[in-house]
């Protein structure tokens, strides 16, 4: 009976801890292998950048116009937006009009004056 309980505890531990970790690792590898130029990413250090080029294990990102930095592929934490996800918005020919409405009740000063 005690042996069965130990085996059962190891089984529960496997399904509660090890399997979700393997799933997260697999998803991270898929995300890193799908990176391409134009993707907006966040590194494990919190740096926001745009992917410029992808080599085997090195990804070159642009952190500011003209400033390129090279990172190891595992240093990419997540993709914020993919270059294929960005849909350009159609340009409007008419400028947006702003409607102005008058204030109906004036502002009342609530501050006490020092006497």
TrEMBL record:
* Subcellular location(s) per record: Cell membrane
GO terms for cellular component: plasma membrane
Q: Which domain of life is it from?
A: Bacteria
Keywords from the UniProt entry: Cell membrane, Membrane, Protein transport, Translocation, Transmembrane, Transmembrane helix, Transport
Which Pfam families is this protein grouped with?
A: YajC
Q: Which GO terms describe its biological process?
A: protein transport
Protein family according to the UniProt entry: Belongs to the YajC family.
Question: Source species, please?
Answer: Actinoplanes digitatis
Q: Where is this region: Disordered?
A: 82-115
What's this protein's name?
Answer: Preprotein translocase subunit YajC
Its placement in the membrane is given as: Single-pass membrane protein
For bias kind Acidic residues, which ranges apply?
A: 90-102
């Amino acid at each position: 009976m005690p042996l069965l309980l130990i085996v059962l505890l190891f089984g529960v531990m496997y399904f509660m801890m090890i399997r979700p970790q393997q799933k997260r690792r697999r998803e991270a590898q898929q995300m890193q292998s799908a990176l391409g130029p134009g993707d907006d990413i966040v590194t494990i250090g919190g740096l926001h950048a745009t992917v410029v080029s992808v080599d085997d294990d090195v990804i070159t990102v642009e952190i500011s116009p003209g400033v390129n930095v090279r990172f190891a592929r595992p240093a990419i934490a997540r993709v914020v937006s993919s270059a294929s996800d960005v849909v350009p918005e159609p340009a409007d020919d008419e400028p947006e009009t702003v409607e102005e409405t008058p204030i109906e009740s004036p502002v009342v000063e609530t501050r006490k004056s020092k006497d």
